[in-house]
Amino acid sequence: MTLLNSHRQIDCSGEQFNPYAVVNVSDKKRDIDTVLSRDAAPEEHMNAFFAEAETRKVERVGFKFMLGHNIRVLDHLLKTPDVTLIYVHRDNKLAQVSSWIKASSERKWAQNTVDEHVSKKIQVAPRKVSHIWHEYATTDALFSRVFEDLPHHKIKLEYRELFAPGFNERICGFLGVQPDRKMKSPLVKQGSNNILDRFQNPKAIENYFTTIGRADWLEPEL
């Protein structure tokens, strides 16, 4: 989101359908009246978002949507082929789960500067990680099958592709805008690229994932 929003001709908002808030670029509306009004009519909220976007002097407008945020919105998106879709998934589920556990433990989902949170290790049992990664993997597997058959202008990206050379030019080409040299996300990575360094009990994690045949997830992701 932040990378796209750094382009002068793109406005990419935050999680409009986060269960706890309406997340905009510059603020979060957490009050119950706003959230309840949105949840009572989520399709109307999305339509109003895009209607308001028509007034902005940019070429592309969108918002971040997570699978699991709102089933009515997901269904509406799937039935609206003139909406462009960018689907980002992550092959390394151990990395994905550890990132989520760390962020959710302190409700710190993103940050722009390095602090003690970045080096803080997480305490979690292997079976808990297994429980969560299977849920993520199942969601991705099921949605991928639906995504493949959609008539939308769409692109599916694996997490590591976002950091590959030439990605900015690639995503700009997909969106039909000229590359912007100033495109850069201000966010910093919240965990070590050495996956085992993220855990207080690395030996237990290493043994479990090696035993189940996922030792590849223990390697540096980037």
From TrEMBL:
Gene3D superfamilies from the UniProt entry: P-loop containing nucleotide triphosphate hydrolases
UniProt xrefs under SUPFAM superfamilies: P-loop containing nucleoside triphosphate hydrolases
Source superkingdom: Bacteria
InterPro entries from the UniProt entry: P-loop_NTPase
Listed name of the protein: Sulfotransferase domain-containing protein
Organism expressing this protein natively: Palleronia pontilimi
